[in-house]
Amino acid sequence: MGRKFFVGGNWKCNGTSDEVKKIVSILNEAEVPSEDVVEVVVSPPFVFLAFVKSLLRSDFQVAAQNCWVRKGGAFTGEVSAEMLVNLGIPWVILGHSERRLLLNESNEFVADKVAYALSQGLKVIACVGETLEQRESGSTMTVVAAQTKAIADQVSNWANVVLAYEPVWAIGTGKVATPAQAQEVHFELRKWLQENVGAEVAATTRIIYGGSVNGANCKELAAQPDVDGFLVGGASLKPEFVDIIKSATVKKND
Ligand SMILES: O=C[C@H](O)COP(=O)(O)O
To answer: Is the pTM for the entire model greater than 0.95?
Structure first.
């Protein structure tokens, strides 16, 4: 079974309502491959989620950038999975390295969130990735395998999970992983899934790449056999996001 190309736009903590309207109108007017070829999901900050959902073309979806680890209640500042479901938000990004590193989210905490969000019916973009120090010490696979294992320990149904490999050293730095570096980790991650979760999950789970993806480097990355799409930060706020969506056609003849 083919893995449909997936392009996520993580807007992070950016945007005013005017800027958000502008990005959405660029997306709404863009001519891009059909839904059969590419799944497009944009992730605005919480405050703009409902607004973006109401304006966005119907073949694109929205994602939250985080959600609370369990049922809502007395957790000031948090947003629960149930609330997202109630608003009709289908996706959530969990385990982004900015949250792992700046907010000390551990592998287990991220995995708890993934399991809870899935149990409530959300689809999850689960992020993994190593720091520069970890890469340079040769522990890239140990790190991403541990992050993935924490999730696999709690999740048996991977149908609603997209795994995002985002090397921390490539995020927002302009220092993109080479296509060979991305392919190597994606291949190893798929192998890890095959050996530890199962052949079916390994064959069908989309593993997308994130880290300084832009309109110029996306095609070569998309051409890698184990790269099933992208999670885009900075460039998702610019018109070149449309070119990144179009890179899905590289896979068309798979
Ligand atoms: O979630 C997206 C990643 O953090 C990539 O961000 P970036 O494209 O700005 O490097």
So the answer is: yes
